[in-house]
# Entry
Amino acid sequence: MVEDAAEAATESEEKTDGIQDDAAEVEAEAEDSMEGQEGSESAPQLTAMEARKAKMEQLRKKIAASSRANRASLVEESAKAKITAREAARLEKQRKLAEALRQKVDADENGLDVERAKNWEWTIEENDNWEKKLARKARRRYKKDLDHIKPDLVSYNKQKEIAMGLPAGTLVVFNPMAGTSQ
# Structure
């Protein structure tokens, strides 16, 4: 798909270069014809000069129109290539889904567990590494969650004193930063 888009872009550039070359040739021919007729009389030369100017203007308009048409064609081809790439991605996604569904149907027909059949693709070492990675992630998550927990020990001790029927202030809060009890 990418190669097709690159080829289309190259072709359109070649077309644009070819038309520009053609336009340059026509312009050069017009200038050459203008130079060849300079030696004639001045009155007919003015009308001939006006005719050449009109012809030159007409050629320039033709070049501009051709350039616009080439640009429009290039934009259209580019959009088509973009749609083609999008279509290719969509088809690849559909292919993967179809393959997954086919594997599920095959496993069901053979009486196998789909997940178990899928896991046959992994080696024991790869599985062990994956489980270690999941364990590390879980441990990091647990530690991060613990860091965010800030218990209110004062209110906890008050509730504990009430629940145990102890007098107020019996339970003391230990402050590990200060190294003393409060």
Observations:
- Strands lie at 174-175, 180-181.
